[in-house]
Amino acid sequence: MDNITFYKFVEINNLDELKETILDFCIKNEIKGKILIAKEGISGYCSGNEKGTKDFKDFMHNIEQFKDLWFKHNKTEKENSKKMLVKIRNEIITFKQDYDITKTGKYLKPEELDKLYE
Fold first, then answer.
1. How far, in Å, CA of 12 to CA of 46, rounded?
2. pLDDT tens per residue, range 47-98
């Protein structure tokens, strides 16, 4: 069994449509877990067989906002959830304050980050 986790802060305007699209894909491909979506982004975990999670990653990468979505993998003996849930929330991470997701830091390549550490 392959478990994956992921999140990304990105502006999402089509929450209802995205929810249904992701849920339909997951149900058809026997993916189980929990995914939260909000206007600020996406966060989730899910599990399935190796082909199912690979297909899920490919599916997500074909959605414009998630073409660079990064996934963390774990192998396990059992699924991390008994069913699939996709929920729309006000926030994927509760900050309890106003913020602007368009204000970000400068993206660094791994090599650039290594230089900063040195």
1. 20
2. 999 999 999 999 999 999 999 999 999 998 887 899 999 999 998 877 677 7
| C-alpha count within 13 angstroms, C-beta hemisphere, residue 6 | 24
* Residue the block writes with tokens 């199912």: 52
Q: Is the separation of the CB atoms in 56 and 3 below 8 Å?
A: no
Strands 32-38 and 84-88, by their bridges, are parallel
The residues that bridge with 45 in the sheet, in sequence order, are 5, 34
Domain 2-117 of CATH type 2.40.10.120:
no
Residues belonging to the chain: 118
Cα torsion angle, 21, 27, 30, 32, sign: positive
